[in-house]
Write a structure and sequence with these properties.
The chain is mainly α and 349 residues long. It has a two-stranded antiparallel ribbon with strand order 1-2. 66% of the residues lie in helices and 2% in strands. The N and C termini lie close together (10 Å). The chain is globular. It is built from 13 helices and 2 strands, in the order αααααββαααααααα. The protein has one domain. 50% of the residues are buried.
Length: 349
């Protein structure tokens, strides 16, 4: 089963490591100057929601946003340096970063300019997300081997189910849903970046593993070219790790929608490319719970005018219970790490 371990491309592993280090160093080297630049341009920083935890109005006021530009820039530069640029999947990943990042930047810009926590409407965001996802999913599908284009793979069972053309809207939901889930998780210092770090590390291993036909008979289909996606993932790991240097409590900068929308969409895109869409729900378990908590809260409040959680997303619920912000973040990261390891264990079945 592990014969591929003795035949892997050592050059690819070196490029993955180089991609990680390049993105990490870029963020660390540019972080302080970039934060100073944001401070000078944003003045009052990111507006804080008045209906959120009251402590945030004091502890987070004046903190600049759009720090996601630093993450995305590092990922793009590192990917261009270390990925094979004749790989369509690499360019699709970079396109997702740029388009979703631009949408998030526009939203952050209006928030800072008008000092309002609400800028782009939900309908406008969803339209941009799904329109982009449609094009990306179509291009991924036509560049996937024909015998598995519309298959949905079930981890741990070594079973694939053909969705036919229904796969396209499903994959679109995966990308747009992941984008919004990460966005909802970006509410505490170091939370979203830390969760993304473990998720991308897991998918780097998966993308690398499924690039080998030797393992396709065991747990996952072999996806030609997916190894280059692993290089993009390690760049994301390095960028998120470097960003935590500045984003850990007390945060000097927030990633904002600029970073969270793009990082979530990229994660969904990687899951679609590697044909591990369902496994994304396992590895991104915390993201799923964050998104579900909001949907449950909204649905139940509209029906009963009462709340299931003290506050949504669920990380705020635990804050309202009296947990310190750093405690919530640390425990959510532990859960995310366990979820990532559980997801990787699917490669053993």
């Amino acid at each position: 089963m592990f014969a591929f371990l003795f035949s892997f491309d050592q050059i690819q592993l070196i490029r993955m490591l180089a991609s990680f280090l390049t993105a990490f160093v870029i963020v660390l080297a540019c972080g302080n100057r970039f934060i100073a630049f944001l401070h000078a341009r944003q003045g009052l920083g990111q507006p804080i929601r008045e209906n959120g935890p009251q402590s945030h109005l004091l502890t987070k006021k004046g903190t600049p946003t759009m720090g996601g530009l630093l993450i995305l820039g590092a990922v793009i530069v590192s990917s261009l340096l270390w990925c094979s640029l004749n790989n369509i999947f690499v360019w699709l990943c970079l396109a997702v970063i740029v388009i979703y990042g631009a949408a998030g930047f526009a939203d952050d810009y209006v928030k800072v300019k008008k000092q309002t926590p609400d800028a782009m409407t939900a309908k406008m965001k969803l339209f941009l997300q799904f329109a982009t996802a449609l094009i990306v999913v179509w291009l991924i599908t036509v560049n996937t081997p024909e015998n598995m284009r519309f298959n949905l793979n079930f981890p741990y069972l070594n079973y694939a189910f053909g969705l036919w053309w229904f796969y396209l809207p499903f994959a679109m939901i995966v990308i747009a849903g992941a984008s919004n889930a990460v966005n909802l998780s970006d509410g505490l210092d170091g939370l979203a970046a830390g969760l993304c770090l473990s998720a991308y590390a897991a998918f780097a291993v998966i993308a690398f593993a499924v690039s080998f036909p030797e393992i396709s008979a065991f747990s996952a289909p072999a996806i030609p070219g997916s190894g280059e996606v692993a290089v993009v993932c390690t760049a994301a790991v390095g960028a998120c790790l470097g960003f935590l240097w500045f984003n850990s409590s007390p945060a000097k900068v927030f990633m904002g929608d600029t970073g969270s929308l793009a990082l979530g969409a990229l994660l969904g895109t990687v899951a679609v490319i590697t044909k591990h869409e369902i496994l994304l729900a396992v590895i991104g378990f915390v993201f799923v719970i964050e998104a579900l908590s909001v949907m449950i809260q909204v649905f139940w409040y509209k029906r009963t005018k009462t709340r299931v959680f003290l506050m949504a997303p669920i990380h705020h619920h635990f804050e309202q219970l009296g947990w310190k912000e750093t405690t919530v973040v640390a425990r959510f990261r532990i859960i995310a790490l366990v979820a990532a390891l559980l997801g990787l264990s699917s490669l053993l079945f």
